[in-house]
Amino acid sequence: MSSRTFAMIKPDAVSRGLSGKIISRIETSGMKVVALRRILMTPAQAQGFYIEHKDRPFYGSLTGYMSSGPCYIAVLEGDNAQVKWREIMGATNPADAAEGTIRKEMAVDLEKNSVHGSDSAQSAAREVSYFFAEADIVS
Known about the structure:
Number of domains: 1
Strand order of the largest sheet: 2-3-1-4
Helix content: 25-40%
Order of helices and strands: EHHEHHEHHEH
């Protein structure tokens, strides 16, 4: 069943010139990039985006890092998009990520793990609408 998910290429991957490789992986997986934008998140945007982590000890570091440089944000569309994108990304901790995944091959460490993806349909809906209007998405 076709669905949408949110994807982000984080500042570490953008600064190392990996954006094209990551987008290529998305497209060769059979998913479509139906919206894409390069942004520099403000600290307030990063805090709002990661609000569910506000009580966790890494929140300040995470939001500081996410507003430290440009990233690409995208809406992906395809069969079981959330599940498929999370499989392509690999485990959050690159040390635990499967061989062949983006995080295993490209991540610097747990925080600078190159990509973000929604973990559920509900998260995808919230994250997509946080940055994109429906008019921005072209299937």
